[in-house]
Amino acid sequence: MECVEKIIAKQLLDIKAVILDSENPFTWASGWKSPIYCDNRKILSYPDARKIVAKNLARIVKENYASADIIAGVATGAIAWGLMVAELLDKPFAYVRPKPKDHGTKAQVEGVVPVGAKVVVIEDLISTGSSSLSAVDALSVHGAEVLGMVAIFSYNFDKARKAFENGNCELRTLTNYDYLIEEAVRSKYIDEASLDTLRDWRFSPDKWGGE
Asked: Which pTM was predicted?
């Protein structure tokens, strides 16, 4: 039986949620240049892929965080995913803004999250980990106990791994960069030249594409 990591990687490639363009690299919020872009929002437009992803996110939460009181999504990309997981597990749902809103209640955590509540955070994608961990910090400041984070995809950067270790936050993902590239080669989604580019970038993403 094919492992979940490969199944999800194949889904991302089949629906073209992964875009490759080494000639016109993408610029991330971190400032890094990248020849690859993973847009998990596209999964929402494909019911079959959406069900597979939501079901497996919920499975990981159920298997590893049975004591969770609340499911929280990271705005904006993981709000839908968090809500689907909460619905599948019959749990309350909340979401976390990138920063407190500048009007009304000025809340950063939206929804009912009592002090001491055990929360699992759902994220769509992990790159450097900074924005994801910012959501974890916001929940902790709010008074919640964050049990861990479950994400659809991670680029598996050392920087992100160290950030989660330093932040004392357990991270679990459905698939990652290594499985994605393996599947892309197997399905001939990328050629050898593209594979070399992706390997070079993976080795040093913070310096790739510089002058």
From this structure: 0.93
